[in-house]
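Exercise 7 asks you to align residues with tokens for two separate proteins.
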Amino acid sequence: MFTHSDFMKPGHDQYVYRHANGLCVIGLAKTHVALQAQGGVTSVDFNVGKSDRSELKVSGKRKKNAQHFQPNSILCNVHSGDVPYTVRCCVKGPLLEVNNKLIESPDLLNTSDCAYHSSLSLNLNFDFSNDAISHVPQAEREGYIAIVMPRPGDWLKIKETLVDFDEFKKLRNLS
């Protein structure tokens, strides 16, 4: 599934992939304006408002200490040079993890092709021993922003607001 824009801001495209276990992987689509800008993404800042998302420590079966997010909640800001771009959660649910590797290596977003490897994105942060993705470069496995765990009922509601990959390609005139 894809969301094709950040609340009517043209070009702020993000993807949401849902794994069979219900977890959602969120990231920037290849068509996001920050990735299209000269130099691409130069920094990622998870320090948003009163909390630093990068210091999130979730534990246990019930995901103790997880922050609960709404679809319009800000996950982070990505910067292309001096220009900040807001990245939103897109789904309602507890935030389980943010990709802290992006703080030190924001170029993982620039080199990531996650938006075009659905089998890869669905396996993010799970088992990389799978032969189907073992050939995929490290940057493509690690170019996501966050993992969220929506309730099944919440997922059904938000799913209606997303477009699938084929529709996304048509909207953006991609081949």
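Second protein for Exercise 7:
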Amino acid sequence: MPAIVDPLIFYAMDLQLSNAVLTATFSNEIPNLVTGIIQLAGAQHEIHVELQGNFLSDIAGCSIEIVNHVPKTDNTLLSKLHRHQIGTVGEMTASRRITQTLRKSAPPASSVLAPSTGSLKNLLFFEWFNEQRQRVLIHAWHWNLRVSAPQWTLTRAQELAQIQTARLRRKEHLLTREKE
């Protein structure tokens, strides 16, 4: 008999999906709605995402396909992540600039994937807050991305309002999360 998991057991924690993502598709082709499907390495089921909010202006109105050629299975993560992610967008962009790789999202050692020293990279950075009060993060610079043409555009004022709202959600989350 499968174990019954209380959805509130994961109250206010961060979940870092980056290394575990095998493939994912996200769409913001309808304003104020982000939907997606994520396949994690080692997972038997896809993760379905439905969020209120928008991508930032670089990919607002677009759909995006992600492929990670070097995923890692994380069974602990799989046990904590609800299969239906319903919530609100934090920050979702494909153009956050970084000068070095982030340790948690660094790929396995490979000369093919290694960035040149001192170079700037565009970081895919997806953040959302789900009904289980989790902050879910996906970020990487080494994946293959395919982005569609935009179906609509986000104004600068809308983007600034969204960034401010995301900061407030992040602050609230950080103040209420459990100590890990």
